[in-house]
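Hi R.,

Here are the chain sequences for the assembly we discussed:
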Amino acid sequence: MTKRILVVEDDEPILDLMDLLIRRLGYEPVLLSNGPDALRYAKNDPPALILLDIMMTPISGWEFLEKLRAEPALKTLPVIIFSASPSVEEKMASINDPFLGVLHKPVSFVELRTGIEQALKKQE
Amino acid sequence: MDRTVQVLGRQVAHTDIVRVFVIISLSLCCILITAISLAQNTGAVYTQLFYFPIIYGTYFYTKKGLYLSGACALAYEVLSYYYVYPNPVDLISTTAQAILFILVAVVVAYFTEKVNTSEARYRSIFESSLMGIILFDQNSFAIKLTNTCVEDMLGYTEEELRSKTFTSLFSTPEEQRVFFERLGSSADITNFQTRFRKKDGEAIWVTLSWRRVTENMVSTSIIDINSRKLAEQAAEESAARYRQVTENSPTGIVILRDQKIEYSNPAFTQFSGYTPAELAGKDFLTLVQEEDRAEFFRFISTEGGKGDQPEIRECRVITKSGGTRLGALFFTSIIHRGSPALLINLVDTTERQQLKERIQKDTELRHGIISTVAHELRTPLQPIMGYLNLLTQDPKTYGVTDETRAILDRCAKSVDRESQIINQMLELSVLDAGKIPLSYSQVNVRDLLSTIVSTGGYASKGDLTIDAPEETVMDIDESKISVVIDSMLSNAVNYSKPPRKIRVSYQFSNAEQMHRISIQDNGVGITNSQLDEIFEPFNLPAAGSQARKPDRVGLSLSIAKKYVQMHGGFISVDSIVNLGSTFTIHLPKTPPKAAEAGQL
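And here is the predicted structure of the full complex:
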């Protein structure tokens, strides 16, 4: 069965791109443009990995992550922060979550592939 | 002093010569008169006449007078015997007369001696007195008598003084005027301070006390108080100077004793808003903001300026209006009016602090703006880069020809470059905000250089040599210094054309205790005027100038410079146009203290 990757991203062009890229990498993309919808989806039917934008409304990527990790079943679900904002590392260092990775926009096809593969491998 | 003449090898005064002449003449007259009256047997012998030379002589010359009386008695006795012999009554009476001469002489000698002794005593007291004494005539002010102390004090001889008037001794007409005023106001004056002029023209401070000893004679005692007065004046001058300095000082000055304010200068009163009267005696601690009190109290009670160097503390001071001002306080232990006190110098740092805060705020604001801008610029790059990657990864699906692919590759390169510039801009902004700490570790130089060269693929770009000892390690933040060396290498490649010759070498400077890493190329070089500019972010052209600045890779040198500065080092550049450049990174062997590095 193909692994599902949930993309939480409020930027339409990026969402379209991710659809193409993830398919090309051989996964099944699930595209959602806001935190609450994505949270509901993840609780119902946890994906193999989440690609998470940070600057979003109504809740930010950090808030999404906090709520996600509040669910015991989702504590080890790999999440890759996928952001263009510069101060991500500082915040990540303070959270100290072993199942959290980061990819800085703009990310190349190769970087995306490596990032996803590493995150999935870590969980196994 | 009487005038003298040389007589038989001795100094003899004129008066003495006259006296001796008179005495001898009188004596001879007496003998002559006695001889004549005895010879003619007039019956009247004027023996009383002998008393004149005897008393006169004995009074002035005690011993010689006694001899004289003896001589007269003998002469009289011999003459009398010759005429009255052998009348026993007359013999007895003349002998008695002769003895009487000697007795009179003895009595006179006794009293004269007594008077002389007491006069000599007074004379010696007068002469040896440590106080100068001058006797002058009240009407003519002519000086009648002086002692050696006055002579020494003023530098005149006794004779010179005698020829002067007392009033001419004053140094200025003004002093003279004051003297007349005082002399007129009271008969006896003590401790009148004035100035005399010495023979050499120098003024001398003296204190005078005088009293009238006779109707016209005034006796004045003079004490030399020059050195004391000068010391006093110097002290006054120094106090005045000190006052002037403290009163005009822009630094607040406070002197505390037992925490109470003893003195505060205008700068401090202005700073605190209180009047000097309100501050006097006030407990300084009440002026210090409550949060800072404990620290301040601990400081003044325990350590307070124990060392030679003043101690510095910054604390908030509550002003009269209830506001708060910030001051840097310098504490020094001093002796004030004879007992230990605490001197506080206060520099108003309120504005500096406000400025610092504003700069900090501005920097943070700018950093925030740059972060947001970076985010906004990066986001649209993602689809461009993603689609470009997609097209080149899978050319067949999307019908991409080789020619199109070459174009797409160039587009991808531009996206990379854009992305890199945004990253560097962000990095610089973070560095400006001073937020990046260094993580030091021991790094092997040779390994470091090899890794950077192989990661960047620089060896394939030209003839590249690495010259570094195998065992040398440096204490550095590896990732930061890697970025520095990488940007140097990248520049060396970008600003030279094949056949490239790039040499990376390491040296240790014993004199400076610094590591030196040099990156030498055979590229286009940098002109002198460009040297200063290449490290400036964006190489901003001067206002109004359209000239393009040297096209070094965006911000990498600015970042490199900051990283090296954070390490306590610097970058130097040697360059010859069209021959090549050498960039040298100097890093201290011992990393600077965290605080110092953080300020860079």
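The longest strand of chain A covers residues 4-8. Residues 53 and 83 of chain A are 5 Å apart (CA to CA).

Let me know if anything looks off.

Best,
T.
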